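Entry 14. Structure prediction run on the chain below.
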Amino acid sequence: MSAAFPARGPGARLGAMFEHRVQHGWAEVEDYLSAAVVRPGPELARALRSAVDAGMPAIEVAPNAGKLLKLLVQLSGAKRVLEIGTLAGFSTIWMAQGLPDDGRLVTCEYLPLHAEVARKNVDAAGVGHKVDIRVGPALDTLPLLADGDAFDFVFIDADKQNDSNYLDWAIRLGRPGTVIVMDNVIWEGAILDNSMDEVNAPGITAALEMMGQDPRLDATAIQTVGTKGWDGFAIARVV
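Output returned:
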């Protein structure tokens, strides 16, 4: 079984496709864990259906990854969250659910249609009062946030070509102790052979090397398998 994941977000080549393969058992185990442990609510199922109805690519995080984001927001004590890459608001809802009622989540989405769908989803999930959706290229939006309070938690899941730029902005908009999570850092092993996907892999590799070398960060990366194929995420703390 396989699924094609198009590149998306600011600067992405929307026609570019990269195939993620799912081996036997991966999806079944993920489905079991989602049902037995994660237990996503109907508001999240609604967000997924809305994405399908709007013709969006199936590139949202898996439910177990969404729940991890929620728990990381709670464990870090975050009150201000920044998300780069909204899509239909699936991960947005998870993280907003992890925030206290007076918390705030700013999410950056390139496409107005996606932002419109996401707004309906976060409102329907009962977390809309916590969520501020900014529409337009994230590299235009992020500098406008520089005069505000620092973010406690940042999730990067947009076009991979700009991962390093987004990572730099996450540091600049954060503070010592800010947690940064970057999705899709294994990319079917293309980080070892960028010719497998010349659109996305070089940006991912550059961001990983930045995480390891930038003195402002202390980081690690974790491989995962599941319905999104062989992939993973990196997690860093601003020092």
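Residues 2-238 form a domain with the Rossmann fold fold (CATH 3.40.50.150).
Filed with the rest of this week's runs.
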